[in-house]
Design a protein that fits this description.
The protein is 67% helix and 0% strand. It is built from four helices and no strands. The protein has one domain. By secondary structure, it is an all-alpha fold. It starts with 18 loop residues before the first helix and ends in a 15-residue tail after the last helix.
Amino acid sequence: MADKPAWTRFFSFRGRSARREYWRIILALLVLGVLLQLVAAIPGAILIALPISIAGNIAQWAVIARRLHDLGRSGWWQAPAMLLGSIALVRAVTLGQAGAELHPNLSAAIGGAMLLTMVFFIVIGSVRGDPGPNRFGESPR
């Protein structure tokens, strides 16, 4: 699996991903997300942006699962972090600026939840994976 280019495994939840592949895909998806935000602001463009955004989310989940596999963990370990981050994001959007001023403690909790999710992304992208083969396959290095 290590000899295949990252884009050929973009939606694959199998195998392992090294730190470099993980960061390249995460950064590419971050740039894509920013571009989609700009496109989505154009009236009617949501029909284009939404399917691309969904595909980007699937690719993100896949690379995180493969990165967790490199650490010897199940891809399901991302579920709590993703759920926490998603709830925080939805709540932040629905709360808005006026709601944040009315509920400062809730705003702090939302910020804390989003920070924990970001720490999760950074940690799994920084920790060296298992040096040899593990139950998810050969080392990607």
